[in-house]
Design brief:
By secondary structure, the protein is α/β, with parallel strands linked by helices. Helices cover about 50% and strands about 15% of the residues. It has helices at about 15-25, 40-55, 65-80, 100-110, 125-145, 160-170, 180-190, 210-259; strands spanning about 5-10, 30-35, 55-60, 85, 115-120, 155-160, 195-200.
Length: about 260
């Protein structure tokens, strides 16, 4: 039986959190909030939202980064008996209108990692949108695949049975490098991946904990590590790709013969 929970990592900003949690609870989705070492003022806001909406609160005394917070949330969800986790950011950038459709998609594809693919409006900063393309290219290289449309969007559904072992291996980054790295390692582990369009806005009063120098450095280091990891795995990845193409060809031939 599939059991969903939402995990929201939070650090330094909780202004949009009540609206995000309200929407999730209206959809009867249990919510796990992970306070990643926020200031006392923000922690108070988080606790208030948690009490009002009957959320589960995971407290991290020291800020460890988005990845560390998500991992703690996923582990908590698994321990509490949930099979799938919907990850969403706390800043309200992701439109939740299509969440019911996303949950239905996951119910019918329970072994699949479903990744949000941003559909931007005019509010997106040009530099940020362009910068993501560098990561897209490296992700395609490091997976030898185009199966991942966007690896940095914090809007996704994890099948915990297959994702928890990757997390427990301790090989994924703890900060902004986590989102793309878990995608690559899921692809390497042959976890099926689907992409789901999600509207993304960048409000003028928006907040980002992305540290330009630190996080770009971590992401660059991550791509380097993954590139050498891909080289080691490339014979297996190529063989898998060829097997998939051959199977598609056979299926096409069978369909043609039936016609």
């Amino acid at each position: 039986m599939i059991k969903f929970a939402a995990v929201i990592p939070i650090y330094g900003y909780a202004k949009k959190l009540p609206a995000v949690v309200t929407t999730l609870r209206q959809l009867e989705l249990p919510v796990i909030l992970v306070n990643d070492g926020s200031t006392p003022a923000v922690s108070k806001q988080i606790s208030s939202v948690c009490s009002e909406h009957q959320c589960v609160l995971v407290e991290r005394e020291v800020n460890g980064g988005k990845g560390a917070a998500i991992c703690d949330g996923l582990k908590k969800a698994s321990l509490d008996g949930y099979t799938h986790v919907f990850q969403v950011d706390a800043d309200g950038q992701h439109a939740l209108d299509d969440l019911p459709a996303l949950l239905t998609l996951s119910r019918h594809n329970s072994d699949v990692l479903i990744l949000g693919t941003p559909v931007y409006d005019d509010s997106v900063p040009t530099a940020r949108k362009a910068g993501r393309w560098a990561t897209h290219i490296w992700i395609w290289i490091n997976t030898l695949s185009f199966s991942i449309s966007d690896s940095m969007c914090g809007f996704r559904i994890y099948p915990l049975k297959s994702i928890i072992p990757i997390i427990e291996s301790g090989r994924c980054g703890n900060r902004m490098d986590f989102d793309p790295e878990i995608c690559v390692r899921a692809s390497w582990a042959n976890i099926p991946i689907m992409n789901f369009p999600v509207k993304v806005i960048y409000p003028e009063e928006g907040f980002s904990s992305f540290q330009l120098i630190r996080d770009n450095g971590l992401i660059a280091y991550m791509h380097t590590r993954l590139f050498f990891g891909m080289l080691i795995r490339s014979p297996r990845l190529i063989a898998r790709k060829l097997k998939t193409l051959l199977q598609r060809h056979r299926n096409g031939a069978q369909d043609g013969s039936r016609g």
